[in-house]
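Preliminary data (for renewal application), guanosine-5'-monophosphate complex.
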Amino acid sequence: MPEPDQSKLRVLLSAAMIHERIQALGAEIHAAYPEGPIYMIGILKGSWIFLADLVRAIPRHVRVEFIGISSYGKGKTSSGEVRLTKDIDASLEGKDVIVVEDIVDTGVTLTYLIQLLQQRRPRSIKVAALLDKPSRRLRPIQPNYCGFTVPDEFVVGYGLDFAEDYRNLPDICVVE
Ligand code: 5GP
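Predicted structure:
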């Protein structure tokens, strides 16, 4: 298989910028929860690298779970359909939960997921998103913890894909 054509990528956020911002987010989250473990639920697959770095920036007990949601097809455009493809194993009743998302775009995925997880009666539920693309929002949802606000461009890298490629780029790039 040929390597992806790097010339079509423009760095938007460098690995160093991402690292620095995540250290600050981790400290903010740690300070906001006075006691007990935090249940960090990563949405597959885009959030896995962000989640891995974020939990290491939080100096306390955290529990890590993954949930699978399919909201985008294999291209750049949304299928408009949200579906649970993998559920978590742990009970969330009475727990402090943070849903960890790579990017909030229309907000459809998160709105669906938050409604679903609320039914499991957590003590609190918040959202940490690495990226926020507010210009395309269709649902009134804002991440409680946000890494960066980005313009309306399609981004890849640091876990985010285009048709399953580019997840392993250390920087976040715009596909031109
Ligand atoms: P929403 O339901 O908020 O429209 O969509 C959120 C999901 O769409 C994200 O978790 C991500 O999978 C995908 N998405 C939205 N914008 C982008 C983007 O710029 N790049 C990539 N790779 N995925 C995106």
